Description:
Largest sheet: 5 strands, antiparallel
Helix content: under 10%
Amino acid sequence: MKLTLRTSLVTGIFLLGLLIPGVAVAQDEPAPSAPRAPLAYTDAWNPIEPGAWHWYAFKYREAENNRPMLIRLYARPHNGIELLLLNGEQVRVWQQGGKLEGFGAATPAYALVEEQVSQEELCKARPEADECQNGGFDSNSTKVNPDDCAANNGSDGDDDNCFLLDVPEPLGYGQWAGKIGASGEYYILVRRASHSEGPAAYRITVSGDGFTFR
C-alpha cells in the first residue's frame, strides 16, 4: 500500500544543544497540535518536551482484504513517552470534559529467547511445569547456581540440573497491532509525562491497509 503523506513546514521552538546519542532529530520542536490541527505524519525522529501532547490524524476505510495495522513507537529514552489510539467519539468525549480513553496503546514488544535456568528459577516462572508438579521441586534439595546454567546458554552442552525456559527479551520499542474495524477518522496521540527531565525524541512507523494520514 502506498501511504498518502504530506509534509509541511512547522514553526517550533529551537532546542539549543539537544543531543541524544545515536539519534538524529530535527532541530525544531513541532508546533502545538490538537485533533483539529494534527501534525503532519513523518517517520523521522521528533523531539518532544515534558508534558507535550502530539496529535496525528488518519482516515480509515474498511475493506475485507485490508491487512491489520501495525504501529510501532520508538523512543529515546524508553520511559516517559506513550502512544494512544483513539476514535472520533473518544476524542469528542474528552473535548467535552470526559476522561481521555483510547481503544489501544503501544505496549513493549518482546521476543522469546530460550535460556537454560535452574529448576528453582523454572518453577518460579512456571509453577505449572511438569518438573514442578507432584513434588518435582524440593526447595531443600541441593540448589544449582543460576550462573552455572547461564554459562551453558549458547552452547551445545547439556546439564541435567538445568532446564529450558522461554525468557522475554525487550526489542526496544512499543507496538500496537490489530484491525481498526470501521471506516472513519482516527487519532494517534503521543504524549510525554510532565515530570520527565532532559531531552527526548520519538518516531512512529505504520504499516497496513486502508488508512491515509491527513
